[in-house]
Design a protein that fits this description.
The structure is a homodimer. The first copy, chain A, is of the alpha+beta class and about 160 residues long. Chain A has two domains: about 15-100, Arc Repressor Mutant, subunit A (Orthogonal Bundle); about 110-155, Dna Ligase, domain 1. Helix content of chain A is about 45%, strand content about 20%. The first copy, chain A, has a three-stranded mixed beta sheet. A two-stranded antiparallel ribbon of chain A has the order 1-2. In chain A, strand 3 and strand 4 form a beta hairpin. In chain A, helix 2 packs across helix 3. Chains A and B meet through strand 3, helix 5 and strand 5 of A and strand 3, helix 5 and strand 5 of B. Strand 5 of chain A pairs antiparallel with strand 5 of chain B, so a sheet runs across the interface. Chain B binds a DNA duplex (30 and 30 nucleotides) through helix 4.
Chain lengths: ~160, ~160
Amino acid sequence: MASLAPHNHDHRKLAGAPLVTAARATMLAAGEQWTDMRAAVFDVLAGLDHPASAYAITDAVSKALGRRIAANSIYRILDLFVAANVALRVESANAYLVNAHPECLHDCLFLVCDGCGKATHVDDEAISKQIRATAAAAGFRAERPVIEVRGRCAACCA
Amino acid sequence: MASLAPHNHDHRKLAGAPLVTAARATMLAAGEQWTDMRAAVFDVLAGLDHPASAYAITDAVSKALGRRIAANSIYRILDLFVAANVALRVESANAYLVNAHPECLHDCLFLVCDGCGKATHVDDEAISKQIRATAAAAGFRAERPVIEVRGRCAACCA
DNA sequence: CGCGCAATGTTATACTATATCAGGGAGCCA
DNA sequence: TGGCTCCCTGATATAGTATAACATTGCGCG
């Protein structure tokens, strides 16, 4: 275990079982349950290599469970996940993504490729601070910055 | 805050007739027509004090023209407007807004109030440059930054 | 005139998101 | 145990956002 300084931003990404464990712990800490259904949704999210729509996730969960799940139920769970910071939403793509380090909370920036659809999650405190400062200067109370860059990733620029 | 752009970024906001004239000129310069329909949509946009959904705009245009316009037609025109930079889209709100200075092109930042729904349009080259630099550092070609801050405006904080 | 082209109309449909109420299981307490 | 509440999920309906596909109109031009 790396040391947990006040917040050293050692952002190694979790994956596999440790990620599930961390997500579960985060949910429990938020006073939310970790049900079979939620675990199934999380597994699907964690298995994606790019953000997916709620309906795509619904299809994948349905397939995984062998029975039809209503989109409705998936939305409820995704909303909880986002609120608890174990999942993230890409506003400009109406899509959801697992949060590979659910234990630290900060504004995040997505580089969203219009070629392959993949999103790279970047944390940059300098940008975040600057945006929040700009908002504050305008007398605006920033609650949820949405910072996304549409464009082309290195692989898709070719 | 060095101002090295080709133009001086004197961002006085246009309104009323001069704004329409500027928008029209911008569209023509982009090789697009300025039809009665487009003028009607633009008038509605220019009369809004906060971003509105395509359907709300459809209703307003329909009312202004005294006949029912299909949402479809409005979407087409809004898309053109956004492409030509005479209108802007707030991704996190699925809403459209007139661009009060259509003649200069830059990334923009919206402060979107969850209380009153108003959006403040801020231009900040420092943030824009930093975001683009971050993207470039990741080998990502930034084409369209989406920078929006959800929160509460000064009036709604009270 | 006849043709092509762009804009708009018309209709249908896909996609995204939420509301509402019913059912069912776990824990709690008399 | 029985009954109770609370939360999660199911089921259904509907609202809201966006695009597809083809028809029609009107205008400029040879």
